[in-house]
Known about the structure:
The protein is of the alpha+beta class. It has twelve helices and ten strands. The protein starts with a strand and ends with a helix. 45% of the residues are buried.
Amino acid sequence: MTGHAYDGRVLDAAIDPEQQALVPDVSGNVINGLGEGRVRPPSTIYWQDPRTLAHGRLQNWMLEKTRRDVPQIMDMRTGLGGRGNEKRVPVAPQPVPGDAAEFAAEVKAFALGAEADAVGIARMRPEWIYAEHADSPGADLPNVIIVLVQMDHAELATAPEPPSVVEVMRQYNRGTRVARAVTDRIRERGYMAVPHGGPVGGPLVMVPAAIAAGLGELGKHGSIINRRFGSSFRLAAVLTDMPLAADEPDRFGADDFCRNCQVCSRACPPDAIADAKQTVRGVEKWYVDFDRCVPYFNQTYGCGICIAVCPWSRPEVGPKLLQKMLRRLGSDQA
């Protein structure tokens, strides 16, 4: 791996030998289903119980390095704004009757009033639940609420330096607070609800659920691009059986833009971002090479360069891009 220029700096992408010794024999791309033509649930690979993961020792190495070098994130329960109440309220014995559209509007208004910046709703799909978590609480619930919380782009743009990971964890905490508050609100209304907030993984792969819920399009860098926030945000989720009207996916031209843009791929120190879509578990999509990305990700406290440099994330660029792509879509559909 060679160094890449980013924000005037040349970053060394060489991997620490101590970490290199922990790389397992199995490829993370194989675990993720790269090249597979059949749709299937994903397999756990990172941000789960390390004892169950082929890459668990790498995950532990990354967390220990981050705790040592960035002590501000050591106690997320009480620091960085906290994660909200950990104990859930009981589900009321009788569900409040109501219309799915009215409930959806109520849930969104509540979430937006409880620190969320955007909210979407989708019908649950089996391929969004990790195979190892099929029996986890909430995995069998029919609806998913996705919460978006914006990051401070100036802090994110310091990636891969420590201030960026502090901001990421601060927003993970905010997303978790929102998810827990929404969960308790739904339970008070007599419906089951289970919250999930990062960075530790739950049963749900949130990115495809968020796309289905209308929160954006998948970008070349493997993260969602939202029409308002670019990729400068984090997600949280609530799984529930409350009747909710689902949202439609939002297509505004980000996918078309990514086909020609090479900003993130050129900025990626380990060359992990491909210029063409690939088939992953039966779906053609943008895909980031796990085996190339993760070692550098680990050494740089979660990196984040790709979403920081994404033109859609830059406050002075994103709105102009949106108007340009919407005009192009309008011309194509005329």
